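Suppose you are handed a protein chain with no further information: no name, no annotation, nothing but its sequence. What can you learn? This example shows the usual starting point.
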Amino acid sequence: MAELEKFSALYGSIDYPADLLTTPFEVLEYRTRLGLTASEFEFICWIFHLVNKDFHEIRDKDISRRCTRQRKSLQAKGYLKIKIARTYKDKRCIKVGLVYDFTNLKNRIEELKEEDKKLQNLEAPVTVVYDEPSLFNEDIDEKSIYPAKLLTDDKEIEEIKLQNEFLEKFNRLHKLLLNFEINYTKSGLYKKHLLDAFDKRNNNNIDEVLNTVKKSFFKLPIEERKSLRIQDLVKYALLETQEPIQNNNKNKIGAANMSIPKGLDKLNYLLKILEEGGNIDEAYAQIANCS
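A reasonable first move is to predict its three-dimensional structure. Written in structure tokens, the prediction is:
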């Protein structure tokens, strides 16, 4: 049972010692859905192997320097935490070892198991896509096709539709302005910044936002017309509050005398800061504090 206690610190709560042998196969079963590479899976198996030998003697030198990249990538994905284990005798530390904690990996696998149970119980509608065999001996993707996370909230589904519409229209505008589209698959960080700004939006009129961006982009100097500048303009345009149209006579007279809307005043100020090479974050903060 001592081995069981040592291993429990690494992979959550395990009921039987026999689970020590099946754990790598469980990780292998969900490897694709977990986003693990073959080398990362091999690294995890090495950790399990070393733990079964002697828990207190695990050190980086026992694994090989080639595994540094796999260790860092697993930490970045949130599947691995590294802790220090110390053994004391007579109030003195006599041994120091490393604990490779895969509890988060175990928890993620449990979440995937719950999703599979929901599919089996048909708790939510799911569209399943199958790969049909080729009649012309073409390459076939033999990887299992798993459904995305189940969505049952109508508001969440509607929000995802809006996000997709926004990304599609933004790409069309990007193609118009710079003559090329953004590959969201390869440019994941670019897409993340766009969606973060979209989540914080004050203006739900996507066409109006992108039209404002288009006009502002053409006011930039030629050397400033870059993809990241479009991203900055979109970010600010989404945060601009959509003002309701006033129909009474007094407001009509006031609107007739106003040459530039308040939102465009702020946007022009932002463009001026960009042209002068100023700090874009400070400019956003100053504009946000303006009444």
